[in-house]
Target: Methyltransferase domain-containing protein
Amino acid sequence: MHQTINLRYRSYNKELLDGDDIPFEDIQRNMQEINTINASLGGHAITINGFRKLLSHRKKVHVCEIGCGDGNNLYQLYKWCKKNNVQFSCTGIDIKAECIEAAKKKYAIVNAVWLAQDYKTVKLTSKPDIIFSSLFCHHFSDKDLIEQLKFMQQNSTIGFFINDLQRNWFAYHSIKIITQLFSSSYLVKNDAPLSVARGFHKKEWINIFNKAGIKNYTIKWKWAFRYLIIFKHGK
Model:
């Protein structure tokens, strides 16, 4: 139940999606609806924005997404690169093997490597230029996030970016109403508002970055109730 949740503090209640016994057809429905929400509320545009800022004028890039789900974010970047004559290769990492299989079948991305692993156990043969995550960080504790930031910093050559949720009362109640009215996924109905409650305030991100010992980053608020965080090496 979310009625009595206190949005002054991050919720650490587990989302249903983080369980190990969810049927894949339910996960698939969840991903489809999240992709629709991302497209409708500007989530994809934020991801492309972060990517472009790190890409700059380069015409060749290897990008890695941790927590890639069914690969939709990487597909959006692939389409953008194809349109803009950028040579694109990518690595998608997700702990759920079913998501990786769905990505392989769903998106015909040239030069894509898909890994069904916990990102922490992955041994990258060469460092990607850019590492990113979208709607992934809020699944983790602050302690886990410190290690996640270090991973992205240490394994990227250009930098990394994060697209994730701002914890906000309007966003929380709005997404709760919208999903109750229009969603056909029990995962989305439960997890979408809880995801907002597990989201961040800017000062919390600053504290996490300080503890990770990482500088050279920017945090910008984006519609609808997101933060785009960009770290660049050697800035």
User: Anything to note?
Assistant: The first strand starts at residue 60 and ends at 66.
